[in-house]
Automatic annotation (TrEMBL):
<protein>
    <recommendedName>
        <fullName>Sensor domain-containing protein</fullName>
    </recommendedName>
</protein>
<feature type="compositionally biased region" description="Gly residues">
    <location>
        <begin position="48"/>
        <end position="62"/>
    </location>
</feature>
<feature type="region of interest" description="Disordered">
    <location>
        <begin position="19"/>
        <end position="65"/>
    </location>
</feature>
Amino acid sequence: MSRVVVAVSVVATLGFTAACGGGDDEKDTEGKPTGATATKAADEGKGGSEGGGGGATSGGGPAPLTEAQLEKAAIVSGDIKNYKVAKTPEGDIPAETVPAEPAACQSVADMFFFTSTPRAELRTARTLTATSDLNATVVSLALLAHDEQSDAEKVMAGLRTASKSCTAFEHTDYKYSGVKALPDPKQGDEAVSYQMKGSIEGTDVPMTFTIVRSGPTLAAFYAMNVLDADKAQVPADVIEAQLTKLAELEKAAG
């Protein structure tokens, strides 16, 4: 079995757990529409969702991206060398958060499945695997479009606090340890980075997370490597490719 197959199998296991424990992506616990459904309804009430965005949120920041814009902003295989890019099934990134123990770790636990509080109005995710069988690093990324810039700022603040106060936690029947805040990257409007190690099916899996805010949109990345802890880093070229494409889309949207 190749290194990439081993790594992807771990990601698939985690995605299956998320799908089983995360709830319905279409409605929240009160029966209200969430995710793409909620945003589509809101856009229809405002006069359409395929337009060019622009303007500003009611909170004074840039307007949130539409569903079409968010999909267009996400990288594809041709945007990055040496990686295959696949769209992550919606079932693998459930909209509902799953409680973590202790609760102080909730923010970092949520980001593993690209959920958050406040919750993003729209999300799209990708999984990147190296084209070389000698590279076992698997990268997951997502773009999270919040309705208000202040909501995205709250998510970032929660991640920054949790990555410094949380050291270990349990989430979706798995245990995580060694949570450690890393220096904030100098990217976007603000960024946060941290690392941890998961104990998954008897295997220790080192992981590194980087989350970058651009207005009301978050670009979230994490990398794992089941064979080489030193390589469990989010590749700089992946972050650069995604942030560049997002910035181009935001500029075009006005």
